[in-house]
Design goal:
339 residues; alpha+beta; five-stranded antiparallel sheet; globular; binds flavin-adenine dinucleotide; binds uridine-diphosphate-2(N-acetylglucosaminyl) butyric acid
Length: 339
Amino acid sequence: MKVIEAASLEALNTFGVQARAALQFDIESEEDILALPAFDPARDLLLGGGSNVLLLSDVPGNVFCNRIKGRQIVDGNGRHATVEVGAGEPWHEFVRWTLDYGLCGLENLSLIPGLAGAAPIQNIGAYGVELASVLESVTAWDWQAGNWRVFDREECRFAYRDSRFKSDEPDRYLITSLRLALSKAFAPQLTYPGLLEELGSVSTNELTAKRVSDAVVRIRQRKLPDPAVQGNAGSFFKNPIIDPGMADHLRGEHPELPAWPVDKGMIKISAAWLIERCGLKGLTDGAAGVSDRHALVVVNKGGASGADIWRLARRVRDTVEESFGIRLQPEPKIVSFHN
Ligand code: FAD
Ligand code: EPU
């Protein structure tokens, strides 16, 4: 296990904001976990690839970076294969590895940044598929009880951009590996607007999971700013889920507002549309801004601090609330150890 003193976190968060931690622990094995100091949520932070965090302050204590590697097919008999992946594996490389083995189910989740261990935290989702649809179990170290736990899918309490690990018991578990049930037969999920068009004239019998993955990669590269070029954490806000009465009222006034039915009669609406409609797309405030490519992405235009980005994001949230009466909820974890 590598331990770094006075560690710089700039390269460990995709916003690229500067921050420091007193100590950084790079965890490389399950044995390393047993040698770690106890996790103190008031002083410590757990990080994967840092693509869904906004750092507003230094970390006074320890940053624990999960780097546990490994990917294997643990049961390949039958129509499905159970695949196990270590929390420290880069997500997109893992997706491509499953496709190389002819295993389907993750293709729509291609090119999501970050590491596998964070995927269950917010039940990553894209292009009509969520992790929950393939997840079998999550293995984690329980910092509080000091033992290992295995959660089946039900116990993870997955919802849109949410799970027990994000909302109910934040910072309690260190996820070390996932098991996924992937299919040997390809069942394309092509309902997301634009995906079918991106595949162009590929005939049904030429369609493969890899082709879908490639199409998703192309769409994402076109739509979203690359964090390696311009710091960001993907969507800064979740798409609001509102009741049908509110949705009818809003769509009465704005028939073009994109909206999708979700569970229990509720309606999900597009936060990007609300932000763009407020005239905020491309807005710049100092070194922080709203991307001119996608209104839901807040960007670091160079040298922004976490506070600069958070000020801009609150301005977006407040303007949308004044205009539409809807308070947007941030998607990334907002990390602040200020008193
Ligand atoms: P981090 O940012 O390091 O951590 C996120 C949270 O998970 C933190 O609270 C952290 O403490 C916790 N955590 C991390 N690892 C562990 C672990 N092993 N055990 C316990 N807790 C842990 N997300 C989507 O859902 N869909 C998208 O389409 C999508 N697109 C994106 C596009 C871009 C350009 C970017 C920058 C981000 C995007 N994201 C998307 C958000 C992000 O990539 C995902 O949420 C990803 O799963 C975060 O992984 P990470 O390793 O970077 O997590
Ligand atoms: N739109 C605008 N203005 C824009 C961008 C989009 O009005 O600048 C409208 C479009 O008209 C479109 C709608 O918003 O109808 C939806 O846009 P898009 O398809 O880009 O998806 P999104 O709802 O903005 C969500 C996820 C993304 C995920 C994509 C694809 C959330 C918060 N975001 O974005 O996830 O990749 O769908 O499935 O659910 C992330 O979580 O970080 C993330 C990038």
